[in-house]
C-alpha cells in the first residue's frame, strides 16, 4: 500500500488514484535544472484527518495556516519500501458540489533542492573568517609550504595590473629588484576549490562524500581577485587621513638645520581621523602607500635669503620628499606654495614631519595661519592612504571574485562532468563524482527476463539527442592573452568542438560553458618568469581588469627563478624560486599531465608536450561517445520490476539485456500498484578509442611525440589527424609529431 508522509504527518490517499513517478538521469547531472525526479500531480481527499494538516483550504476567502510558498518535506513509501523522498507542493484545491474537496499535490525528488538551498548568495557572503590571516612574509612562505590553513590558501604572483616587465632602460624598469622588492600585497592568495565547495554545501545544510574532491583535486585553487589591486583586509585606510594647519600666524621661525614645524592644529576645519598626528609628527598606522599635500604661505625676513622645505621620516632625520629644495624670498614671499606628492610606501610606525631650513643663520621665517583651509594659509595633509600592502588581516571572503555560490558549484560540474547523487536514506547527503567514476561504480544487473515482450520495444539511434555542433568552452577572461586569442580566432582559449557534418538529422548548436576564465600563463616580458598576466591590453597607465571573471588553476609548487620580496623586518628576502599556478598540473607539462583547458592548445610558455588529459578528453569524451557514435542506441521498453528493485536501482547500474549492457536514462511507473515500469536506456559502448594513435610520452633524444597504436605498440610515425588533434605539430617528411613552441 502506498503511503504519503508530509512533515511527519501521514496523509490519507485515494485507493485507486494513480501516482505516477518519473526518475530522470539528466536531473542528477544538471544541478541548475528546475526539474527533478517527480510525481505527476495526484489528488488526496480533504478528509477530517487531512484537513487537520492542511487546514480549511476549501473555505473561500479564509486565510489558512498552509503557506504555498514553503517547501514541505515529503516521503512516498510502498509497503515500507521508499519510493521517493523530497518535498511536496500544493498545486490546487478542488471542491465538488460545494461539499467534497480534494487537494492536488506533486512530489519532487531531493535533487531539485540543491540549487534552491544554495540560493543566490555570493561567494563574498560565505563565512570564511577561520581562514583570515595576517598578510606577512611569514604567512606567504607558510602558504608555499602548505601550512597556512593546512594548505587551503597559497600565494601566487599573477600580474593584476602592476604590468611587470624587464627592459634595458633603467629609467623605465618596472620589475622587482633587491632595492625595490616585491611587497606583500604584490602576491595574491589562491583558495583551494574543494574547501570552498565544502563551505558552500555545508552552509546550505548538506554533507557530501567525494573521492574526487577528497584527494584528486587538492591542488586546484581559485584566484582571490575581484578587481582591487590591493588585498582587502579588515582595516579602513580611508580612516587614516589627516589635515593639520595653523590657527594663528607663526613668526620668527629660525634655524639653519632642518627643523620640524610645531603647533599645528587638528581642530575644525582641520582633522586627524585616525589619531595618528601628535605635536609635529604623523605616524603611519599601516604599511601602505601615502599621498601628501603641503600648502605654505608666508615670507622670509631677508630679501636675499633662501630656504628649503621637505617632508622627512625617521623622526626628522631622513628626507622623504624635497618638494622645495631651495627657494628664494623673491619666489616664496606672499605666494601660495602648493605641492602634491606621488604615493610613498611607508612601514607601520614610520614617522613623518614637515620641516624647514634657512640657508643662513640669523634670518627668520613667518608663516600665516588663521584656522582656515585656504591657499593663503599654511597646512599639510595626508590626502590618501592605499589599502595596506602588508600587516592587515586578510579578509578571505572579501577577496573572493564576484560570483554566485551556485555558479561556482555548477561551474565545477561543467568542467569535470560531475553528478550529484543524493543518498537514498538522507537527501541532504550527496555523492559527488565525475560521470566516468560514477558510472564505473554501478552494479551489473540482468533484466533480460524482466522485459515485457507483449509491448513494443523501441530501439532508436540517438539522433534526437544530438546537436550538429557541440562546444565545450570557458568564458572570455578579457585579459591580454585571452583577448588576443578571441580576437584572432573568434573563440575562447582551449575551446573544444564536436562537429558532426555527416549527420543529416542533427541540428542546432549546444554549448557547455564554464563561468571561469582560462588561467593562461605567459612570460613577464624580458624574463623567464611564467605568470598569469591578468592585464587589459591598453595604452592607459591603469591596466587592471575592473570586473575580472573567476579563474581556477593548479598549484605547481615553486620553480627556479630568483625573486626579491620584503620580509617582516623592513628588509629584503632573496629566494631562488618563485610560486607558480598554471592551467597544467605541472608548469613544464608533458603528455601524462592534466590540462584545465577543454581542448589542446598551444601554450604561451615552454612545456615539454601538450597533455592528453584535457577536460574534454578525461571527463566528457566517454559521455559524448555514447551519444555520437554510429553504434549509439536508445532503447525504450516496459519491464516487470518489483518495488524493491525500483527502490534500489542506481543510474550507475549496468543493465544486461540479452547480449548488451545499457544504462538507465529514465524510469516511469505507477507507485500505487505492482505493474509495469517504462524505462529508457542508453547503450553502454565502453571506452571508444579517441583516435587510432594516442600520445603517451616524448622521446627526449629527438623531441618526437610517442604514440600508442591500436595494437598497443609505441610508435612515432602517425597520422596527421591524430597528431594535430592533440595540439602537436606534424612533420610531413618524417610523419612524426613535435611539440609546438609557445605562441
- Point out poorly predicted stretches: none
Distance between the termini: 68 Å
- The helical percent reads 10-25%
The name of the CATH topology of the domain at 237-385 is Jelly Rolls
Mean pLDDT: 89
The dominant shape is flat
> What is the C-alpha radius of gyration, as a whole number of Å?
35 Å
Question: What share of residues are in beta strands?
Answer: 35-45%
Give the class from helix and strand content and strand pairing: mainly beta
* Count of DSSP H/I helices: 13
What is the CATH-assigned architecture of the domain at 237-385?
Sandwich
CATH C-level name of the domain at 237-385 = Mainly Beta
Largest sheet: 8 strands, mixed
Number of strands: 49
Give structural notes.
The structure is a single chain. By secondary structure, the chain is mainly beta. Among the domains are: 2-118; 237-385, Jelly Rolls (Sandwich), CATH 2.60.120.40; 443-466 and 629-683, no CATH class; 694-739, no CATH class. Strands 3, 4, 32, 33, 41, 42, 43 and 44 form an 8-stranded mixed beta sheet that branches. Strands 2-1-6-7-8-5 form a 6-stranded antiparallel beta sheet. The longest helix has 14 residues, at 615-628. The radius of gyration is 35 Å and the shape is flat.
Amino acid at each position: 500500500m502506498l503511503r504519503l508522509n508530509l512533515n511527519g504527518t501521514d496523509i490519507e490517499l485515494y485507493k485507486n488514484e494513480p501516482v505516477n513517478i518519473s526518475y530522470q538521469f539528466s536531473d542528477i547531472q544538471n544541478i541548475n535544472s528546475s526539474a527533478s525526479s517527480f510525481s505527476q500531480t495526484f489528488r488526496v481527499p480533504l478528509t477530517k484527518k487531512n484537513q487537520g494538516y492542511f487546514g480549511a483550504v476549501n473555505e473561500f476567502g479564509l486565510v489558512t495556516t498552509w503557506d504555498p510558498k514553503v517547501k514541505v518535506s515529503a516521503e512516498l513509501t510502498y509497503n515500507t519500501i521508499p519510493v521517493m523522498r523530497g518535498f511536496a507542493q500544493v498545486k490546487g484545491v478542488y471542491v465538488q458540489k460545494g461539499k467534497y474537496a480534494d487537494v492536488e499535490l506533486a512530489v519532487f525528488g531531493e535533487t531539485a533542492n540543491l540549487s534552491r538551498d544554495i540560493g543566490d548568495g555570493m561567494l563574498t557572503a560565505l563565512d570564511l573568517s577561520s581562514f583570515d590571516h595576517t598578510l606577512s612574509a611569514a604567512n606567504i612562505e607558510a602558504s608555499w609550504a602548505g601550512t597556512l590553513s593546512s594548505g587551503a590558501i597559497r600565494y601566487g604572483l599573477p600580474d593584476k595590473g602592476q604590468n611587470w616587465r624587464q627592459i634595458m632602460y633603467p629609467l623605465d624598469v618596472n620589475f622587482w629588484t633587491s632595492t625595490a622588492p616585491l611587497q606583500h600585497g604584490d602576491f595574491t592568495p589562491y583558495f583551494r576549490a574543494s574547501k570552498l565547495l565544502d563551505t558552500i554545501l555545508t552552509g546550505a545544510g548538506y554533507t557530501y562524500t567525494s573521492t574526487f574532491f577528497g584527494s584528486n583535486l587538492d591542488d586546484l585553487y581559485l584566484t582571490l581577485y575581484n578587481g582591487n589591486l590591493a588585498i582587502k583586509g579588515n582595516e579602513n585606510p580611508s580612516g587614516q587621513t589627516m589635515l593639520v594647519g595653523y590657527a594663528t600666524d607663526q613668526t620668527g621661525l629660525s634655524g639653519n638645520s632642518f627643523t620640524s614645524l610645531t603647533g599645528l592644529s587638528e581642530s575644525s576645519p582641520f582633522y586627524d581621523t585616525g589619531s595618528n598626528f601628535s605635536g609635529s609628527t604623523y605616524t603611519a598606522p599601516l604599511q601602505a602607500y601615502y599621498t601628501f599635500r603641503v600648502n605654505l604661505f608666508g615670507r622670509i625676513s631677508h630679501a636675499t635669503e633662501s630656504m628649503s622645505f621637505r617632508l622627512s621620516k625617521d623622526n626628522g632625520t631622513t628626507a622623504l620628499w624635497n618638494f622645495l629644495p631651495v627657494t628664494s624670498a623673491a619666489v616664496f614671499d606672499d605666494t601660495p606654495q602648493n605641492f602634491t606628492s606621488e604615493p610613498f610606501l611607508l612601514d607601520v610606525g614610520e614617522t613623518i614631519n614637515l620641516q624647514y631650513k634657512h640657508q643662513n643663520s640669523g634670518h627668520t621665517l613667518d608663516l600665516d595661519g588663521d584656522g582656515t583651509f585656504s591657499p593663503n594659509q599654511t597646512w599639510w595633509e595626508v590626502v590618501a592612504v592605499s589599502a595596506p600592502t602588508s600587516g592587515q588581516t586578510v579578509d578571505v571572503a572579501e577577496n573572493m571574485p564576484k560570483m554566485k555560490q551556485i555558479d561556482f558549484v555548477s561551474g565545477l560540474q561543467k568542467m569535470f562532468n560531475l553528478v550529484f547523487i543524493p543518498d537514498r536514506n538522507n537527501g541532504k547527503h550527496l555523492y559527488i563524482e565525475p560521470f566516468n567514476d560514477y558510472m564505473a561504480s554501478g552494479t551489473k544487473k540482468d533484466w533480460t527476463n524482466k522485459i515485457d515482450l507483449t509491448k513494443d520495444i523501441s530501439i532508436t539511434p540517438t539522433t534526437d539527442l544530438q546537436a550538429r555542433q557541440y562546444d565545450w568552452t570557458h568564458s572570455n577572461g578579457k585579459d591580454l592573452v585571452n583577448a588576443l586569442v578571441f580576437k584572432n580566432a573568434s573563440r575562447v582559449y582551449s575551446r573544444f568542438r564536436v562537429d558532426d557534418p555527416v549527420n543529416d538529422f542533427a541540428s542546432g548548436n549546444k554549448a557547455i560553458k564554464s563561468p571561469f576564465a582560462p588561467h593562461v600563463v605567459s612570460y613577464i616580458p624580458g624574463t623567464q618568469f611564467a605568470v598569469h598576466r591578468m592585464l587589459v591590453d591598453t595604452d592607459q597607465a591603469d591596466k587592471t581588469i575592473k570586473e575580472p571573471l573567476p579563474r581556477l588553476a593548479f598549484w605547481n609548487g615553486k620553480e627556479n627563478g630568483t625573486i626579491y620580496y620584503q620580509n617582516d623586518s623592513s628588509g629584503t628576502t632573496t629566494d631562488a624560486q618563485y610560486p607558480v599556478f598554471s592551467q597544467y598540473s605541472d608548469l613544464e607539462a608533458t603528455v601524462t599531465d592534466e590540462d584545465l583547458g577543454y581542448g589542446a592548445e598551444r601554450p604561451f610558455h615552454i612545456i615539454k608536450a601538450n597533455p592528453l588529459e584535457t577536460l574534454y578528453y578525461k571527463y566528457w569524451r566517454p559521455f559524448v561517445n555514447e551519444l555520437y557514435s554510429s553504434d549509439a542506441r536508445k532503447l525504450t521498453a516496459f519491464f516487470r520490476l518489483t518495488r524493491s528493485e525500483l527502490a534500489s536501482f542506481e543510474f550507475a547500474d549496468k543493465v544486461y539485456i540479452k547480449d548488451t549492457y545499457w544504462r538507465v536514462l529514465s524510469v516511469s511507473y505507477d507507485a500505487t500498484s505492482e505493474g509495469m515500469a517504462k524505462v529508457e536506456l542508453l547503450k553502454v559502448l565502453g571506452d571508444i578509442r579517441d583516435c587510432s594513435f594516442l600520445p603517451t610520452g616524448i622521446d627526449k633524444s629527438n623531441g618526437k611525440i610517442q604514440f600508442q597504436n591500436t595494437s598497443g605498440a609505441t610508435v612515432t610515425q602517425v597520422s596527421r589527424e591524430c597528431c594535430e588533434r592533440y595540439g602537436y605539430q606534424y612533420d610531413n617528411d618524417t610523419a612524426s609529431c613535435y611539440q609546438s613552441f609557445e605562441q
